[in-house]
Amino acid sequence: MLDVHSPSYNDCRDQIIAFSELVKAPEHVHTYQISAISLWNATSSGLSADEITERLSRWSKFAVPASVFSFINEQASRYGKLILLPNDEKSHSLEVSDPFIATAIASDAKLKKLIRSTSDPAVFEISTYDRGTAKLELIRRGYPVDDRIPLVKSDHIPMKLCVELRDYQKQALGSLLGDMGPGTGFGTIVMPCGSGKTVVGMGIMCALQTRTLILCPNVVAVHQWINEIRTKTDIPCEKKEIKPITVCTYQVLTYRASKDDDFVHMNAIKNGAWGLVIYDEVHMLPAPVFKITAELQAVYRTGLTATLIREDGREEDVFSLVGPKRFDIPWTDLSQAGWIADAYCIEMRVPLSEDLSLPYAVATKRDKYKIASTNPEKEKVIEALLSKHMGESILIIGQYLDQLKEVQKRFGFPMITGSTSNDKRDQLYAAFRDGTQKVLIVSKVANFAIDLPDASVAIQISGTFGSRQEEAQRLGRILRPKSRSSFFYSVITKYTVEEEFSSNRQRFLVEQGYRYETREI
Prior knowledge:
Blueprint: E1 2-3, H1 9-16, E2 21-24, E3 29-33, H2 36-44, H3 49-59, H4 66-78, E4 82-86, E5 91-96, H5 99-106, E6 115-117, E7 123-127, H6 131-140, E8 146-147, H7 167-177, E9 186-190, H8 197-208, E10 212-216, H9 219-232, E11 245-249, H10 250-253, H11 266-270, E12 276-280, H12 287-295, E13 300-305, H13 315-321, E14 325-328, H14 331-337, E15 343-350, H15 357-362, H16 365-373, H17 378-388, E16 394-397, H18 401-411, E17 415-416, H19 422-434, E18 439-442, E19 457-460, H20 468-476, E20 486-493, H21 497-511, E21 516-520
Parallel strand pairs: 4-8, 9-13, 9-14, 10-11, 10-12, 12-13, 15-20, 15-21, 16-18, 16-19, 17-18, 19-20
Antiparallel strand pairs: 1-3, 2-3, 4-5, 5-7, 6-7
Helix pairs in contact: 2-4, 3-4, 6-12, 7-8, 20-21
């Protein structure tokens, strides 16, 4: 736990972030976590166990328990005992210096399908195709692999970034690429919405100057990447074809005519001779794409996200296949520096409509949540907030389409849902940006990357149960830097299951440094 008011805060943070992960960043005390993966990442970057324990001892206010040092030494010692070296085009050699680990690998029935024994009990063979999957299975067993196979840049594609990176963006880029030696060039970058993750991605592209594949969560994000590349680099952009710089959605990769058919576009992507793959919003990486990610181990790769939270708990898979977290910066640090907007988070609690009390009492838990979420009493709060923030750019965000249609019927604002055509979306987003349309009603599309710099008020009237990732993404819609503060309202029905789920979402934002105020209606 790090006291942000200490005069040594910056120096201490810079030293401990090398071997720990920032997990909570409220206003006064930040919490870092030392895990096996964070230690393996540190040792892969050349930091020894002795250096880690020395830094902890130097900065710790109290004596560090011996059990912590023991954990650090034991986990750090594991890295480097399994070394993956190039063999030929079809296979790689896994050298294991610890006889106990070598025996464990040789006797593991599941690993035998991926890792073949040789005449030398300390050396195994892994096919090039199974490289990523084998690494993933080994790390799940607590055996990190020191992958020393050089990454491939592929074709040289001249490109230049036409904007100046901010200091923290340069740090993010440097944390991924390092000295371009073994163990660098892959990893995950965590930066708040509105802080310029796309610019960092383009900075990495321009540093490597190689064939690049950019994977996005939706078509809107694809359009935004293309527009950013057009305006901030000297790269010509074209659509609909495989080009040296190709931007597409995860859905393109996972498309198939039926569940029994093959994925239509997987081979085109897999055989694209990419030198760099960028996974935008990597926390949304679909499960089928993990397979192709496992096969794309020879290329530079980075995942970009505002919050590496997966509700399916597969964060470790992202670390193993895309790469470990290389860079993270607290939201509040950027807010204080003026790079993202100040935001006030307010929960508005309304009573359940009387005519819904009986249906709510006899409903299942799932139905209770929908009844509470779509409580018509929330419309009174919307009306009051629209009046309070008249003239500002406002997003009304909800989960349930029938609820959003009722809101649209009452207030008359245009609505964007998953079924809205791309042309219509673009028109409404453009009107919102230029100020001719001040209020938009949006469904779950607001969870994803939409670039609305002037949005300063978000009114959330329903959400996906206790999804922390969704809460962070929706807050991110109003964090673009601006001269005025932003307001994030979450309207819930009190004394219902919605309170329980809301507290889970709310707790995450508090841990990121945002104050949450509660108001009873």
